[in-house]
Amino acid sequence: MTLRCPQCGKTLKIPANLAGKLAPCPNCQTQLQIAGDLSTITAPHASEPELIVAELAESSPKSNTAMYLLIGGAAVIGLSLLLVGAAAAWFVLAPSPAANPPPVAVVKERPSLEEPDGETPTADPVAEQLPANPPDDGDEWMIIPMIEAAAPEETLSIDQAVQLYRDKEYAAALPHLLSLSKSGDARAQYYLGLCLNYARGTKRNENAAFRWFLASAEQGYSGGQNDLAVCYENGTGTVRSPELAFAWYQKAADQGYGLAIANVGNCYLDGTGVERDVEKGLEILRKAAADGVPAAKFHLAYSYKNGIGVPEDLDKAVALYREAAELGDKRSQFEIGYFYEKGIGLDQDFEQAVVWYQKAADRGHLMAINNLADCYQNGEGVEQDLDKAAELIRRAAEQGLPLAQVNLGYCYETGKGVPKDLVAAFRWYQSAADQGNAIAQYNLAQMYRTGNGVPTNGDKAHKLYLLAAEQGDSDALNMVGFCYANGLGVEKDEEQAVAWYRKSADKGNPLGQKNLGYRYDIGLGVEQDYKKAVALYQAAVEQGNAAAMNNLGTCYEYGDGVPKNLRKAIELYRKAASLGDDTAKDNLRRHLKN
Question: Which residues cross the membrane (predicted)?
C-alpha cells in the first residue's frame, strides 16, 4: 500500500504490519497515525533536507508494556520493547536502542505489602500496648472515599471482615475494617492499610496506609510491623529510613513471622539498615527456606541467579523460584512467567508465561499485570485482545505503577484499546513523569515539542528531555542534542549539540550515531572528519537506520572517508529507499536516470 505523507507530500510505502500504528515519515520525520485499514495517514509537519539527511528528532511516543521486567524482583529496562518509531525507518515495534542490553539485571524488587497465603501474622502477647490509632492531628488521613463515612449498622467480626477481603470483596469488607480499626483492632488496621495501599475498595492513599500500618505495628501485630518496615524501606507514605525498616522487620521476625524473617535476611544481603553481611543473610534465608518460607526461597533464588554470595546457578534459581511460586509467592510466580516468556532457564512457552503471569496478577503483582497486558496486546500465549490489554494496564496504572501509567498514556495517545484522548494521555504521562519515569518524561517532551494535545512549548520540552537524559535514556540524550542544534528551549550551541549526540551514540542509539556522523560529515560543531562520519554512519546502518544508509551512500558516491564506489552507493540508496527513505529514493532516481 502506498500513500502520501499529508505534510511533505512524499509517497510512502506502508507495510501491512503498521496498520493502526504510529510511525514517523522517513522523509520529514513527522509522526504519522496510520489507519487500521491502511487507507489514510494523518500527522503534523516537519521538514527534511534532500541529499544528506541531517539531524533527526524522534516523533513517536514510547511505550513499554511488559518492558520493564522484574528479574529476581528487579526492575529491568534493558529488554524493553519500545513502541517507538525509528526516525528514519519504518520500525514501530523495535528493541530499545541501548546496545546489547543484558538479559538479566541485579537490581532487586522492593519488598511488597502483602500477606502471603498460608501464613497469618501474629500479635506479640507481651508487646507494649501503645495507642491504637496514630496521633490525633486531624481526621483527613482517615477519610476513605467511595464508602459511607458512618459505621455499618452491625459491624462484622474481624474474621468475617478478613474473609471478605480474601474473597476479594473489598468494597464490602472496607466499612467493617474501618469500624474495627477505629475501635483499635490491630489486625483490621493492617488489612485496612493494605486496602489503602493497593486501592482495594477505595482510592489509593499511601499516607493513610502508612498510618494504619503504624497503628497496627505499635500494638505488636507482626503483619503491621513487617509492612510498616516496607513503607520505611521504600519511602511509601513516609520518609525513607532503612534503619527503621530493619528495626521493624526484626520486631516482626522475632515473633516468627516468616515473611519478616526473609526480609531480615535480605537486609543483611543488601546492607539495608544494617551492616552488610552476605554470609549471615544467606544463613537466615537458608534456614527460613528449609522451614518452607516462600519469600526466603525467592531471595535465595535471586542470589543464585545473580551469584550473590554463591556461585551463579540458573538451574537452582529456577528450581527455587518454582518452589516459592507453587507456595503462592507472587514475585516468584512472576519470575517463572518471565522465564517462560523469554526462554531463560526454561524452554520458551508463551502459554505457560500467561499462566504464571495470571497467577501473580491475581495476587496483585503489578508488573505481572503489566506483562499480562502485553501478552494480550501482542497475542502471545493468548488470543489478542486490545480491550483486555488496556483494562489490565489501567488496573496497574491506577495502583501507581509508573510503567503502567506510561503504557496507559500511550494507549490514550494512540487509541489502542481505548478511545483516543490526548488529555488523558498527557495526564497519565505526567503522573509517571512525576515519579521520575524517564519514558514518561520523554513522551511529555514529545507532546510539548510537536504540540500534540498541548500548546507547543520548547522550554518545557527541553527540560523534560534533559530529565530523561540524566537517567541515561539514549533517545532523550539524542533529543537534548537536537534541542541545542535547533535552539529549542535553549540557546543554539553547536558544540553542545555534538556533546549530547556523542552521549547518545556512545549508548548505541542509531539516531545519535547518525546525527553525530552528520556533524563530522559537514564539520558542524566539530572538525570535519569523513572517516569518523563513515564509522558512525556504519554503526547506525547496522541497526537498520535508513537515513544513515542514505548518508553512507553519499560518502561512497563522492569518496568521502572511503574509496569512491558508485556501485556501493547505489546499493545503499536502494536499501534505504526500500525502507521508505524518500531522500534515498531521490538519490537512487538520480542515478537510474543516468
Answer: 68-93
Tell me, yes or no, whether 308 lies in a domain.
Answer: no
For 218, residues 6+ apart whose C-beta sits below 8 A from its C-beta are 130, 131, 224
d(CA 505, CA 55): 13
Residue 514 in any domain: the answer is yes
CA distance 51 to 184: 76
- pLDDT value, residue 153: 80
Q: For residue 94, list its beta bridge partners.
A: 82
Alpha-helix residue ranges (DSSP H) falling in 28-77: none
What is the structure's pLDDT at 79?
26
- The enclosing domain of 479 has a CATH number of 1.25.40.10
Q: Look at the block and give the residue holding cell 542509539.
A: 509
The DSSP bridge partners found for residue 99 are: none
Ordered mean pLDDT values, 10 residues apiece, the chain (594 residues): 57 59 56 66 38 55 49 30 27 24 32 51 40 35 42 88 95 95 96 93 92 96 97 94 97 95 96 97 97 96 96 97 96 97 97 98 95 96 96 94 96 94 97 96 97 96 98 97 97 97 98 97 96 98 97 96 97 96 94 80
- Whether 583 contacts 51, CB under 8 Å: yes
- CA–CA distance, 130 with 219 (Å, rounded to integer): 6
Q: Are 281 and 267 in contact (CB under 8 A)?
A: yes
pLDDT of residue 124: 44
Domain boundaries, position 585: 69-97+400-593
Q: Is 567 exposed, middle or buried (0-12, 13-18, 19+ CB in 10 A)?
A: exposed
Helix (H, G, I), strand (E, B), or coil: what is residue 18?
helix
Q: Please report the sign of the dihedral spanned by the C-alpha atoms of residue 95, residue 112, residue 200, residue 116.
A: positive
Judge whether 433 lies within some domain: yes
Among 301, 307, 267, CA closest to 286: 301
d(C-alpha 399, C-alpha 435), whole Å:
13
CA distances from 354 to 86, 347, 358, 378 (A): 29, 14, 6, 12
Same domain, 551 and 409: yes
- Domain total for the chain? 2
Look at the block and give the residue holding cell 549539540: 497
Q: State the pLDDT at residue 593.
A: 79
- Asked if residues 526 and 553 have their Cβ atoms less than 8 Å apart, the reply is no
Burial 404-439 (b: 16+ CB within 10 A, else e): bbbbbbbbbbbbbbbeebeebbbebbbbbbeeebbb
Q: Which three cell numbers stand for residue 508?
A: 548505541
Beta bridge partners of 221: 123
